[in-house]
Structure formats: structure tokens, C-alpha cells
Amino acid sequence: MKSSRSSSGTTMRKYYQLILVIVCFISVITLLIYRHEYYRLRYVLEVLNFFGKPGLSEIEFCGPGFNATMLSEILRNSSMEIRETPPLFQQIDENFYSYSSFLRSYQKYDKLTPTHAHNIDTIVIGKASIPPNFRCNIWLENTNKPKAGRFSYKTVSEPTNDFRLYIFQCALSQNLGKPKGVSFYINDYNINPIHAPINRVIEVNTKRKPRESSSIKFVNNIEPAICVIPNQVPLVSRDSFIEFLVFHHMMGVNEFTIYDSMISEDIIRRLNLLPADITQWNIQFFPLNYPFVFAKSYSIVRDAIELDCLFRHFRLDKEEENKASHAMVMSWDEFLAPRVHNNIKEIFNDFDPTRKFKTLEVQPLLFCLNQPEDDRTEEGFPDIMRKTHYYIIPHKLKPVHVRNMDSMQTFEDIFTLNSSTKAVPVEILGAHKYTECRDPKIPNPSGTGYNETQMQVFQHKFEGGMAKFGQALVNNKIYRLYRSGKIWEKVSNEFVRDML
Fold first, then answer.
1. Residue 333 and residue 403 in one domain
2. Is residue 320 domain-shared with residue 396, that is, in the same domain?
3. Is residue 347 part of a domain?
4. Which ranges of the chain have pLDDT less than 50?
5. pLDDT of 368-405, one tens digit each?
6. Are residues 195 and 228 in the same domain?
7. What phi and psi, each to the nearest 5 degrees, are found at residue 479?
């Protein structure tokens, strides 16, 4: 009997072992099938992200390299009118983030030279303490497999909080087809490059002919463009938004490129109701996703946006009319205020008539929103007209750099902008910054700045240059329409036209 029970127990154990082996085998097979389907789906998403899907704009499809923050930014801004390939931060690895890519060897496609037929520059923010060591692929039109390129890089900024601005370059010496994208991945042969995020490339003219003029002085060809970035506290009120656009439009600026994801969708929708023949401006919106602590990385993000701004304006043929001759990056709380002239086009024309300086440097002046208002100004004027003293407070303010596109004959000139700089005297033009002044060393959760007694301690100087534009601003058709509040009730630009 004992022997029979022992034999029966041994048999049961064998059955249990067999069942466990079968379950294990099925689990492994299921896991392999799941893994295979996962990589197939991921590959399809990558291809769709690169080549696009009919009926969707470039920004509406999210492929590899997008994180939840980027997706929410894009969806929230889906009503923005985006006519160009948007710049978006994508993670290359834990230390480097790509922003936008430009095919700078592109002049005319049928005139490409055999040597370095394709050279793609990508704006990258990365750790200053870690040398970039990557490989790159160039994706070509009408193919689903990339070609390996030659990777190199250059540093274009000083370190800021251990971050630095780089240009990653990927070159292809043979003309194998028209490039549509570029990707970077770790220099490790165990890494599958197909999973690297892909940046669409934007075509750039490598050489631009200077505009013709009848004499030494250029005639009627100053076309300034402003690329707008968020304030250091990345929120802008509806009033500040409209005041910035209308005021600088009065100063002669017709081209605005806005890099901001915090603009109210309703404001943009209402802005698009204004008829183009009335506004006579061109506004392009780009969402701004920053995978960093914004306050700590503000300076380096601003540098990246400036490069993107210059690259985009450089790609436009200088022989075309109404293309930017000067470009500058400004935040919503910065205003270029002329002293003697009535607009900045006259200043640039008189101050640098032969267009020989690559950079005009405009001195920043700090106007505190918590300073008392000037009683001599009109009651209905906005705050930017009623604050008439700039303060000498130990805040680090960067000057506004006006980049002269007419001085750039080749794409390489973009990287030597500071080699030829001229400072504009504050008696001619000032960069007014309107912000709440507070002690940066003392955190204040209520957000209040210095009180009136504290403000009296700081040295300040009178500057009433903005006040002379107050009446023109409040009489502006667009500004009056905004102040009336009626535009927020309309649903068609035809109704808006009747109100102007």
C-alpha cells in the first residue's frame, strides 16, 4: 500500500510539472507575439509621424519622441493656424533635446554640388559637461529607410546652469534624394536607430543676394520681424497680448512669429476674425514645449528660439519683396520705444544706412508695474504709457538684439552675429521692460512686489518716450475694437468688418 501511494504521488508531480512547462511555454510565446506586435505598431507610428497622414497637419500627429506634456500642448492649441513645420523639443537621450532642423545646403535642388550635397543643422539644448557622441540618419523623400549620415557638432553658446546650445550637423556627401527628416541616436551598435525621434527638415537657401539699391543708402526696404517668447513668468494677459501686437505694428512691424503655448485659445480665435486687409500683419503661432524648469532654463531656451527665428527668416529669398530685413526676439513685456523717430524702421534706416552691422544692441530699461502712475498722462491710457520712470534695480536684464538679415550673405554668418555690433543710444531707442519689481532673493507666495515706500529708495529716471504714442494707440482701429469688447461677441469676420 505504501509503495502504491508513493507511485501515485510521483505520477501527480510529473503531471504538475508538465502543466507548468506548458503554461511557461504558452507565456513565452504570448510574450514574443506581444513584443513583435508592439514593435510593428511603434514602427508604423514612426513612419506616420515622419511622412504624415492625409487630412492632418504636421502638428496633429504624435509619434515617437513626443511625451505627455508635448501632446497636451499640441491638443490644447489645435485651433492655432500653423502654416509651417513647428519646432518642438524632442528627447534624443537623457542629456540632449533637439528643437528644429534645417537643410542648409539646399539652394536650388537641381544645383546641389556633389560634395556635402546635404548638410542638416539641428538646434539642440544639452548638458555642457557631456560631449555629444551620436550617430545620425537622414530620411529621404519617397523612401521608408534612412541613409546614414556623418555626425558633427558645434557649440554656439556659453554654459547656462550646466546647459549649452549646440548645432548638431548631419551630412550626406551624395545626392541620393531629397531629405525630409533627420534623427540622432546614441553611438552604440546595440541601439536600433529606427526608434530615434525624427525631426522634419526645413529648406534653407545657402546664399542670398543683397537687395539692390540706387545709391549707398538703401531705399524703403526695412522690414522688421519680431519673434515673441513668453515672459519669465510664462503667462500673458489679454490686454498685454493686444497692446504688444498693436503697438509694434504701429512701430512698423508686420511680421510676428509667436512661440507660446499659454496664449488663450479664444484670443487666437478672435484675433483670426480680424480681416487681413485691416490688420495688414502676418502672425504665425508655434506651441512651445520646454522639457526643463522654465525659470532656470529661460536664457538658454530664448537662445534656441532666436536661432530658430533667424534660420526661418534666412530661408526666405532676399530677392522676394516684404521679407524680413531685421529680426529680433522679444518677450510680451518688452517694448521698443523710439525717442525722436515715429517708428523703428526709420531708426534702423538712419542708424545703419549701409546695413554693415550684423547686430544692433538696444539697451533695456526696467519699468516697474508697481510704481505709481504718472498723473500727467491720460486716464484711459494703458499701463505702458502711464509708467514714466525706469528704475536702476540690480536685476539682470539682457539687451534686445536686432539681427540684420541684410548683412548675412551666407548661412555661416548666423553663427558670427556678435562679430559686428553697434549699440543704439538710449536717447534714440530704448527696450522698455514692464514687469512687477520684487526682490528675487525673497520668495513671496502672494506675488506682490516692492511697496511704494521701498520703490522710493531705488534710483530712477524719468522717461516719457512712450507717452507720446498713447493717443495713437487708443485711437487705433484694432485696439478700439478690442477695448469695446464687441469682438468677443462675434463669430464671423464679416461682422467684425462692419464694426471697423
1. yes
2. yes
3. yes
4. 1-2, 42-80, 106, 108-109, 213-220, 318
5. 988 888 888 777 788 899 999 999 887 778 999 999 98
6. no
7. -65, -40
